[in-house]
Amino acid sequence: MSVARKTVLLVDDDAQFLDILQSLAQSANGETWTVLAAETTALALEKLQSNQVDLIVVDLRMPVVDGVQFLQLIRNKYPHLKKIILSGHLDGSSRSAATKAGAELVLEKPITPEGFQNVLAALGELLRWQNEEGFRGVLRRVGIEDVIQMECLNRASLVLEVKSPAVRGKIFLRKGELLHAECDGASGEAALQQLLSLAGGEFHHAAYVEPPMRTLQGSWEFLVMEAMRKRDEASGEKTTTDPARAVENVPAAPLPGVTEMVVCGQDGEVLHSWQSGDAARRSAALTLLSQSAQRLASVLPAGALERVEFFGRPERVVARFSEQGAIFVRGTTGPE
Amino acid sequence: MSASSSETLISWIEGTFPMGEALAIGGQLAGGLPFHHGATAEFTGCMDAELWSALGEALNDVATLDCDASRSAWVFENTILWIATRPDGGWIGVFTPRDLSAEARGTLQTRLEQFVALT
């Protein structure tokens, strides 16, 4: 059975490093990969235009246009392109910026043979990933709200055509202003809310045309936030992973058998604690757990950490994580 | 842990944990020496000893939760990491698919308990 050939583009201003990585990648996967290299982002853009590139690996620190800026530059034009950022100076903020700019993986720049092997393994893994969830046309785990936000900030004029198995819709933007949304008979804010609540599907950027009418008024920030708030309200009965919602719903004594509970926000701030002697300490531990899981997920196809369960006796502890924060619950109930 | 008992433990792991439904297996022996015992193609990152050392540090961080962390399950979006810790501090981690059958889960837990009790 033939395997589809993949094209990988490496971008780094360090010619020596680029040469090593390209040689290793080519020798390890030459039968199935075509490995291109570019020492500047300008050259990289040329290669992107003249080749069907599947995966791009970009150095974070480059002159003129750095890796994050470069990803921001190409994310719209090459929505199916998978992206990896490499850096020898990774910290929390640069990792976060790279992820926000669309990098599926953020990896330490290798300096040892084992490190190079790990990076090559990660490249191979990412090439095997399928965009099975989230929105095709952008990145895994990126919602339409992120796309709207970016286009509005860019003061773009376009029509965003959104399609899922159940719903089809359009969102009209003119010079960064939300003018109109429509889907399946609904229009205006109701349509925007419906489209923002989709868990997956695909979208396309279409050239701007005048909408049939204007149904959205006000700033895009307000419209998107309001639609997301309504979406969260609508899904609130189904989920309890949002710590802020958990705070609203926490009764004086949470549940029979629960002996301690701490709810933390996304920055580790304690939003609520019940029967906890040292909520700040719990929060710090949850943050460390979350960070460890993120590091793990950067080298393994594990995905995001959802929860950790400790099956101690007679106590059981569950730490539940989401993008909004974490919830720590200690109880006397036995394991499932 | 003596060298001979480390070897015993490693031999036991190699004999008891054929890959089967596991995606990757590894951990640390008492004293912190990391080990890994195979990984599927998707989990080749688990062949890096540093990964298991880092996980060991994460387990140390758990101490501030003031709970018995000797048995835990880390549920990720795509996988579950099952961890069992021995009284001597050695621990084993097994990555499995999330949709592990009840039978396979029972077998796994039995083996983890054997790992903890092995002398």
**H/I helix tally of chain A:** 10
Instruction: Write out the strand line-up for the largest beta sheet of chain B, numbering strands in chain order.
Output: 2-1-5-4-3
Our estimate of the beta-strand percent of chain A is 25-35%
Strand content of chain B: 25-35%
Mean pLDDT metric of chain B: 83
Total beta strands of chain B: 5
**Helix and strand sequence of chain B:** HEEHEEEH
How many angstroms does the end-to-end distance of chain A come to? 44 Å
SSE pattern of chain A:
EHEHEHEHEHEHEEEEHEHHEEHEEE
- Taken from the alpha-carbon principal axes, the silhouette of chain A is flat
Helix/strand/pairing class of chain B, anyone? alpha+beta
In DSSP terms (H or I, runs of 4 or more residues), the helix count of chain B works out at 3
Shape of chain B: globular
- How big is the Rg of chain B? 13 Å
In order across it, which strands form the biggest sheet of chain A?
Answer: 6-11-7-8-9-10
Distance between the termini of chain B: 10 Å
Give the assembly state of these chains.
heterodimer
Largest pleated sheet of chain A: 6 strands, mixed
Largest interface: A-B, 37 and 31 residues
Percent of residues in helices of chain B comes to 25-40%
Describe this protein's structure:
By secondary structure, chain A is α/β, with parallel strands linked by helices. Chain A contains 10 helices and 16 strands. In chain A, strand 7 (158-163) and strand 8 (168-174) form a beta hairpin. The two termini of chain A are 44 Å apart. With 119 residues, chain B is α+β, with helices and mostly antiparallel strands. Helices cover 36% and strands 26% of the residues of chain B. Chain B has a 5-stranded antiparallel sheet with strand order 2-1-5-4-3. The longest helix of chain B has 16 residues, at 102-117. Chain B is globular, with a radius of gyration of 13 Å. Classes of the chains: A alpha/beta (336), B alpha+beta (119). The interface between A and B is medium-sized, with 37 and 31 residues.
